[in-house]
Amino acid sequence: MELAPEQCRAARGLLNWTQELLAVRAGVSRSTVRDFERHRHGLHRGTESQIIRTFQEAGIMLLPPGEHGPGVRIR
């Protein structure tokens, strides 16, 4: 699954996580999260996988793009 910047922000919002907290938990830099969410650059596959796994372990479901676009749910 490809993570969209909007999904990343929405997932953090559901968890009440800052960019810094996501970065620490996922093992990436805060600037990586910040720049991705601001559409400044995409993520490397490994980094994207780490962030997705971090969200999933925290109870977030990332929904693929469909009729209404990508989404986020909390379990």
Automatic annotation (TrEMBL):
- Cleaved signal peptide residues: none
Gene3D superfamilies cross-referenced by the UniProt entry: lambda repressor-like DNA-binding domains
The superkingdom listed in its UniProt entry is Bacteria
MF terms (GO), sorted A to Z: DNA binding
Ranges where the HTH cro/C1-type domain occurs: 9-38
Organism in which the protein naturally occurs: Ancylobacter tetraedralis
Task: Specify the protein name.
Answer: Transcriptional regulator with XRE-family HTH domain
SUPFAM superfamilies named among the record's database cross-references:
lambda repressor-like DNA-binding domains
